[in-house]
Every structure is written in C-alpha cells, then in structure tokens.
Amino acid sequence: MKAKYLVATAAAGLMIPAAAMVFSNTGQSQTPQPEFLNISNVPGTETDFTKAAESTVNSVVCIKSYVNRNQQYGGNQGYYDPFGMFDFFFGPQQPRQQQPQQKKSEPVQSGLGSGVILSEDGYIVTNNHVIDGADKLEVLLNDNSTYEARIIGTDESTDLALIKIDAKGLHAIKIGNSENLRLGEWVLAVGNPFGFNSTVTAGIVSAKARSLGADSHKRSKIGIEAFIQTDAALNPGNSGGALVNLNGELVGINAAIYSNTGSYTGFSFAIPTSIAAKVIADLREYGTVQRAVLGIQVLELTPEVAKEKGITATKSGVYVAGVSDRSTAKELELQEGDVIVAINGAEIKSLPELHEQLAKYYPGNEISVTYYRDNKKITKKATLRNTQGDVNITKKGDFSEIGCAFMKMNKESLAKLGVSNGVKVTGLKSGPFRNAGVKDGFVIIEINDRPVRSSEDVEAIYNQIMRDDNNEDKVMILKGIYPTGKKGYYAVNLAE
After folding, report:
1. CA-CA distance, 472 to 466, in Å (whole number)?
2. pTM (predicted TM-score)
3. Helix (H) or strand (E) segment spanning residue 305
4. Are 254 and 280 in contact (CB under 8 A)?
C-alpha cells in the first residue's frame, strides 16, 4: 500500500488578485489596507530554540542493537533503523550493505535508534522496535562514553521499552505534560538520524490524538492510536528519541513517519507522555503494563452513523456498539447505542482520545463517564477493571489467569530438540492450558503463527488477544514439542 499525500507549492502561475494583496510592516503599508480587515503591525514573536536544544541534547542517547551471527539470514548488515514494522509508513527498507564474514560467536549490528535518559542512574526509554530481538544493546552518550544496556521491560502495544545502563550523574530529561500541547506550538525532535548523533530538528504540533488507521494498526502491531503529529523532520535512527517543547520538557517519544521512501516527507508521529509516563512507571515497578479497559466494542461517531441512529445531541464522541460481561461498562449500565463524550470531565471526541484517557488509569481506579442515550446526557461512576474483569495487579511473568508459568530455554536445550526458539511450560495448574490438554514440559515454539522466545513474547500475544474487543474468539493456537520429540498442537480457550 503506497502512502498518499498532497503537495502544495508556490509555483509560477499561482495568481492572486492585486486587490487582495496586503503588505504590512512596522513602517508604512505598501498598498491600501481594506477597512474591514484588522491588520496588525506587531511583528511575530521571536522563537529561540537554543535553550530547549542545549538542555535536552545530553539527555538523548544513541542505541545500537546487536544479534548473534547465527540468527542472521543472508549475512548482510548495515546501519538502518528497525522501522521495518512501520512498512506502512516507510515502504521498503534501505538495502543492507555487505559486510565481511565474521565469526558466529561475534554479535553483529542489526539496528540503530535513539533513547531518552529518564534518571541520573541510567534508566532510558526507547521504542520497543529499536531493541526487539537484540542479543546485545550498546548505548552511546553525547559525550561519546559507551555502556552496555539491559532490558527492564517492553510493551509491544505502545511500542515502548525501558532499558538500564550502569552509570551515575546522567543528564535526566524533564518530563512535560503532552496534554498541554496546543496545535501550532513549536516542538523539537532530538535523536540520531542515520547515525548522526545529537541532531535537533524543529517543527510544530500538526495534530493531537492522531490515529494512523486500522490498516496501520494491523501491520505495525501497535495498539496506540493517539499520536502527536508534527512536521519536525524525522529519519531512520530517530526512533525512540525525544520530542520536547520549548521549555526543554519531554512531551513525546518519536516513533514513526509517514512515507513511502523510508525518509522524511512531511509528517512525524510521537507517543505522547500522557501515555508513555504511565507505561514507563509500570515497566519499572511491575515489569509489565497495568491496563484498564471499559469492556466495550466501539465505532467512531461519523455523520453517517449519527444520521442512521438518530443522534442529534452531539456531533462527536465514541459510539458504543457492544458491551462485554464482567466489565466496567456493565457497571456503568452502558448499552449499545450510547455515545461516550467525556471521562472524568475530559472531552472525548474520537476513539484515539478515548484510548489516551484510559491509558492514564489503573485497574481499581474510579472514573466518571459522561454519555448520551436517546439524546439525553448521563454521567455515572464506576471502577475500572483489567482485561480479566478484575482489579488485580499483574507482574512480569505472572500468568496465574491461564494456570502456568514459562521458562526460557537455553541454546543447548533447544539444539537437542532441533528447534531454534521456544519456552517451556512449567508449574501447570488448573486453568485454560490444562483444560486444553497441555502438560508440564511442553515447549511452545509458536503461538498464533508467531515465534515465541521468552515469557515476554507469550505475555505480548496474550495481551493483544485479550485487548481485542472486536474479536470474540479469545484463543491461543499453540505449536510445540515435548522433550520426547513428540509434537503437539493445542487450542487454548482464554475465554473460559
């Protein structure tokens, strides 16, 4: 699918009637000014980017990812940003450059991205796709010092990851509130495009709560639909870098561009701090993100839907198309046909805005929801729940809801089974896995045709299945092998 865009140009032949031309400056007008126009003689406010640039450039790092040689296909490597999951925006990736043959045991560079220092002791946020699949991570600071990083937690849904280096006295960035951003406000993007360290570009906020469309969601596997859209120039290598306001405060994590060439062509997208701040805090404390959901199936309230359903009291909002059992929506007594217009007083005009507001809360938080029913406004309070319908806090590797745990396999164990990846089922007890016939020791190679290498992979797939309110079939299709060599295939019903 090719990206489409409009190009506006000030070309010869664009004629403007002379009577419509008005020239104004601090001196005398060059042409008569029509009386009906309020022409200001005050010059535009000067904008100084130096303060924001100087205060943030040392808070942004370069991240190089490496993989073991035996995991490469074709043996070609090169400097490219792992924006491959953003094919919808980038189109084909740049061809990799041929590198000399290296020993199998020697890791080779597979990607290049950026990260933002969050604390003086070395916590760094970046995009999940920057570090995904890496066997080694190398972090280069602005002063050219280099550290090896370890992964604290990842969240595929928001494309965010938290990593840590062993360092002290780092330049931690100040976190700002992305909800305070206004359209047209100046912002700076700081990162490492094409490997050029500490590069700063400027632009304005073009849109907020921007959805990139259902097709992009499907192809990029990213659930976030509330991006900050800017015209600050981003290129491969900017992934995971900082979007800051003129106070030097972090307001977003740069994640994607809209392009069919792989290079910047006009629009960039960043994950707002209203979402990122909570994800980062959850990854640091729990190792996984605590998500609250309403438990509804929704549609955008378009003019066509409003006309069909006879909705006249509001022109915007989120139309409720269905309500799940054991959900917050049930407690709110929401029904099909209701239109949600606010959460805790924050206006909801679209589905991305609903996602952005819900992302701020935890299971167990009480919220008020304002909605229209039969063109009458109603406000009710209820307690948010997680995807399992309760308010329990989950921790990394905690799969009590499916009745087992997962153990990472070392290379020797995998080699004996003749497979290249997999996790072992252990601690099996009552739950969907046992009900499906899975037994202790089963090595899961794939879930729903996706390769599995760690418990984090299982968790990511599980969360994606449970989060999809439009899919009533909550099923994991397992493909794997037992230590005896016997192959196994299981359909695990997560709705049980």
Report:
1. 9
2. 0.68
3. helix 303-309
4. no
pLDDT tens string 156-171: 888 999 999 999 999 9
- 129 a catalytic residue: yes
Task: Classify each residue of 382-414 as buried b or exposed e, where b means 16 or more C-beta atoms within 10 Å of its C-beta.
Answer: bebbbbbbebeebeeeebebbbbbbbebeeeeb
Q: Which of 81, 132, 155, 159 is catalytic?
A: 159
> Catalytic: which of 178, 239, 274, 324?
239
Q: What is the token pair recorded at 185?
A: 């406000």
Kindly name the residue from 65, 129, 338, 469 that is annotated as catalytic: 129
Which burial class, exposed, middle or buried, applies to 189 when counting CB atoms under 10 A from its CB (0-12, 13-18, 19+)?
Answer: buried
283's tokens: 């990854």
Is residue 137 very low, low, confident or very high in pLDDT (cuts 50, 70, 90)?
A: very high
pLDDT in tens, 33-47: 555 555 545 554 567
Residue 227 predicted with pLDDT over 60:
yes
Residue that has been written with the tokens 């396999």 in this structure: 409
Q: Please give the pLDDT value at position 272.
A: 94
Instruction: Pick the closest to residue 319 from 302, 343, 294, 333 (CA basis).
Output: 302
Looking only at the bridges linking them, the beta strands covering 174-175 and 249-257 are parallel
Q: Please enumerate in sequence order all residues whose Cβ is within 8 A of that of 344, keeping only pairs 6 or more positions apart, or say none.
A: 357, 367, 368
Tokens of 28: 């005398």
* pLDDT value at 81 more than 80: no
The per-residue pLDDT for 24 is: 37
User: Token pair of 264, please?
Assistant: 């910047």
Segment 100-108 long-range contacts (CB within 8 Å, at least 24 positions apart): 101/75, 102/69, 103/69, 104/68, 104/69, 104/70, 105/68, 105/69, 106/69, 107/66, 107/67, 107/68, 107/69, 107/135, 107/136, 108/66, 108/67, 108/69, 108/72, 108/77
Most confident of 213-227, 259-273, 365-379: 365-379
- The question of whether 198 is a catalytic residue gets the answer no
pLDDT tens across 273-283, in order?
A: 999 999 999 99
Mean pLDDT, residues 195-222 taken together: 70
CB of 291 within 8 A of CB of 278? no
What are the Cα distances from residue 163, in Å, to 68, 237, 282, 283?
A: 20, 17, 13, 10
At 397 the pLDDT is 56
Which pLDDT belongs to residue 17? 36
- Residue 343 near residue 309 (C-beta atoms within 8 A): no
| Residue 211 to residue 225: CA distance in whole angstroms | 5
Residue 134: closest CA among 115, 119, 117, 148: 148
Answer yes or no: 87 catalytic. Answer: no
Eight-class DSSP state of 468: -
